[in-house]
Amino acid sequence: MALSILEQIIALIVTAIEGVTTGNGYQVDVTGVYRPSTLGGQDRDSPGSYDVQLARGVLVRNEEIDLLGNPPRQGWTVPVEIDCLYRPSSSNTDPIERELDTFWSEVSKAVMTDIQWGGLAIDSELGAPNDWIDMDDGTCGKTGVLNVHYRVQETNPYAQ
Questions:
Q1: For residue 159, is it within any domain?
Q2: Closest of 48, 24, 23, 45 to residue 36, by C-alpha
Q3: What is the pLDDT of residue 97?
Q4: How many domains are there within the chain?
Q5: Segments forming the whole domain that contains residue 16
């Protein structure tokens, strides 16, 4: 099945984050990258130590990047929520904030390496993250939004 330009960009984001490993020169090993399989749901009930969950937000028309032509191109912005889930072990003595900051920094570095996603996007912007903690299961994390600006043909979301 062919993927739309948007889904190709999301697949590249997943691949970039999956590449966050110590073997690739990063300071952490991402244990998994997940997208919700249901609306409002999570793919995993029990996150690993360094999991990332992605959720695509609502598409927004971005007329500033439209192009005239035959066929005309429509500009879009898609917000992609990046949720870095960290579950510290009981034996860990390092400050949680340091672990979270390092985790977020490494994921940020990965997603901002190619802000045009192999030429499929025009630009990407990563917003400031928010810290959070779930007292019920001991998971904490940082959540930020990557806004990706891209164009597709007015009548064909599979072509640029």
A1: no
A2: 45
A3: 86
A4: 1
A5: 5-36+46-153
